[in-house]
Amino acid sequence: MIPKLFVPVAVLTGCTIALAGCGGQDKTQAAMDTVAAVDQSNMAEIMLTVGDPQEAVNYFTRMSTEKPDKIDYQRGLAKSLVRAGKPVQGVAIWKKVLSMPGASDADRVSMAEAQVRANDWKGAQATLASVPPTYESFDRYKIEAMVADSNKQWSRADSYYETAVGLTTQPAGVMNNWGFSKLSRGDAAGAEQLFREALTYDPSNFTTKNNLVLARAAQRKYEMPVIEMSQQERAQLLYTAGLSAVKQGDITTGRGLLQDAVDTSPTYFEEASRALQALDSTTVKH
């Protein structure tokens, strides 16, 4: 349950009392309207940032039903649907937003992102094509890079990723995506460098840590990188390295890494134990 925003209400209500004492009924009503506007604006902002995604969907569904012509509530509904893992529904609302007065290029970029999340790459590309090249933002270039990746336009993707990185102070996520792109096209060394750099901005992100181990394993560098990790994370990363080694034919190394994963894990590591048993069984048969 989101608490009511008492502070701005209390401050502004004090003003309405002062105005009423002066006999300004119209001014009193204007101040009260301001209170309501501030309250709703703050509530909407909270819902879009720290609110539970489904609670945000419920809130913006109600508000957009009550005030269907208010574009901010439609935007909030579209964003909250995407946050709640419902990108297809989010795209439908974004299309409605784009048909309303006041729709912006930022809205088009947001719709393209929703289309990417809905796996509608052609739709995302068409939406981005409707955004003038003069509109520049981190989100625009991040999505442009992902769409270029999907089309295997590597030089174009690299250019967009580089531009996106330069437009944010928190580039960990886009660096991870860029690294995964390089890994998928066979540039494991380039991917390793990007994953390492991403971890300097967000050292706690396990997905990036796992991607780093994959990039190193692709170069047959199976030892654990010197990065921040818990005991459980170390076990998971050893498991990743072990499977990668086995896949590349380095059976002895892979077996050792899988055994290390089992021994390192603070709890029973079922997947690693099962992989180790399967590997030993296959080796015995041969």
TrEMBL record:
Segments forming a coiled coil: none
Positions of transmembrane segments: none
Annotated signal sequence range: 1-20
TPR repeats: 172-205
Keywords of the record: Signal, TPR repeat
Full protein name: Pilus assembly protein TadD
